[in-house]
Specification:
The protein is α/β, with parallel strands linked by helices and 411 residues long. It has 11 helices and 14 strands. Helix content is 29%, strand content 23%.
């Protein structure tokens, strides 16, 4: 049993050698979920639940087991309030066996746009540990999301929202280095450092797709970026390859016509399988996400992504060797926002022992974050995206209707 708590939802995973049969029900006064599992071993499950629930878990208060009848083990999940539970089974993949996944969502899911607007309007715009000079130069932005930028920089006189996607998480560790480093840990550390640096800029704010160790489906990462009207999307990863001498940084953009190399095709296939490993309830896919991911009028956005990727790749070349001297392309699902320039940054090869060691070093992580930010600023100075319209925090983002040759239209 594993428990993954987060602000968005808590996931409880039970992994077994054989497929489970189960029934789930909700009980009130007090709120709890009851899961009856057939042919499970009571002693094993009772031992597994010990110390699994954290005190700061926002949704799960505790776990208990019982034996309501012979051959059945009852798992009781004590809740902190009303929830919207989802349960589904996953077939074996990779290092995992059969899994029963219980996702405990709040009745009203957190709205990332509302949270961002509230944060901006409250003046909470700079990390507490930022230098005093940065805080002094960081006045609260206007409610419509605009702010005065540095004079003499065309296109930089408005507020930019950058979504940072820490790859993998939760059930999906991503690649693993020979020294035991998990990609999901490295990507979150770099993403947090990049967010702090972006938040210290006077005309930028960052939003993380995940801020803890939990899994976010690929389509949801795209949807989060669109919900906060992101200007740019940067997905952070740490590559792995079968040969330990492979090394260097890479940047990828989406391709509509196939991958630019066999390695790019292999990497995209592996990254796109993250949902199978991380665990996604396929019954929960909604029409809006499907429409977003199937939108193919992305030529202008891909062109912008290539320019962004080139700017970031140039900066990464100053602190690490480059695996390829140009931006590569492949069909990465996480880059398929039809109206947001999006790149996937492979910071280094975690499968290379030397690069794995550097990826685990906080000073090197900060260098990577600084290089990515410098590339972002360079791109925005030359190719500022058009201003987004002012919208209500609870308004649903729209899929843009545009021709393949059109400039990046606001949603």
């Amino acid at each position: 049993m594993r428990v993954w708590p987060a602000k968005e939802y808590t996931r409880v995973t039970i992994e077994t050698a054989n497929e489970l049969r189960y029934q789930i029900s909700s009980v009130k006064a007090p709120e709890r979920l009851v899961v009856d599992i057939e042919n499970a071993d009571f002693a094993t499950l009772a031992d597994q639940i010990a110390a699994k629930v954290r005190a700061d878990d926002p949704y799960v208060a505790g776990l208990r087991v019982g034996r309501p009848k012979p051959g059945t083990v009852r798992l009781v999940i004590d809740l902190r309030g009303e929830v919207n539970p989802q349960a589904f089974l996953l077939k074996p993949i990779g290092e995992y066996g059969h899994r029963l996944v219980l996702d405990v969502y709040p009745l009203v899911p957190p709205d990332p746009l509302a949270a961002l607007v509230q944060r901006l309007q409250s003046g909470e715009t700079t990390p507490a540990d930022a230098p005093p000079a940065a805080r002094a130069q960081d006045p609260a932005p206007r409610a419509d999301g605009e702010r005065k930028g540095a004079p003499g920089k065309p296109g930089m006189n408005r507020f930019f929202t950058i979504v940072i996607d820490a790859g993998h998480g939760g059930e999906d560790p991503g690649a693993r280095g020979r020294g035991g480093t998990s990609e999901k840990t490295v990507t979150l550390a770099i993403a947090r450092k990049l967010k702090d640096r972006i938040d210290a800029e006077p005309n930028m704010r960052a939003v993380l797709t995940r801020d803890a160790d939990f899994y976010v489906p690929l389509a949801t990462r795209v949807d989060k970026a669109r919900r906060v009207r992101a200007d740019l999307f940067v997905s952070v990863h740490a590559d792995a390859f079968m040969l330990p001498h492979a090394r260097g940084s890479s940047v990828f953009a989406l391709s509509e016509r196939g991958a630019t190399s066999a390695a790019a095709r292999w990497l995209a296939k592996r990254e796109n399988e993250a949902d199978l490993i991380g665990g996604v309830n396929l019954d929960g896919k909604d029409r809006h996400l499907a429409q977003t991911l199937l939108d193919l009028s992305q030529t202008a956005t891909i062109n912008d992504s290539m320019k962004l990727g080139s700017a970031v790749l140039g900066e990464l070349g100053g602190i690490n060797s480059l695996h390829k001297p140009h931006v590569e392309q492949a069909g990465f699902a996480v880059l398929k926002a039809p109206d947001i320039p999006s790149i996937l940054v492979e910071t280094a090869f975690i499968s290379n022992p030397e690069e794995e060691r550097r990826l685990g070093d906080q000073a090197y992580q900060d260098k990577l974050a600084r290089a990515i930010l410098t590339g972002i600023k360079s791109y925005l100075a030359k190719h500022p995206p058009p201003a987004r319209p002012t919208v209500a925090a609870n308004e649903e983002p729209r899929v843009p209707q545009r021709s393949p040759g059109a400039r990046n239209n606001p949603i």
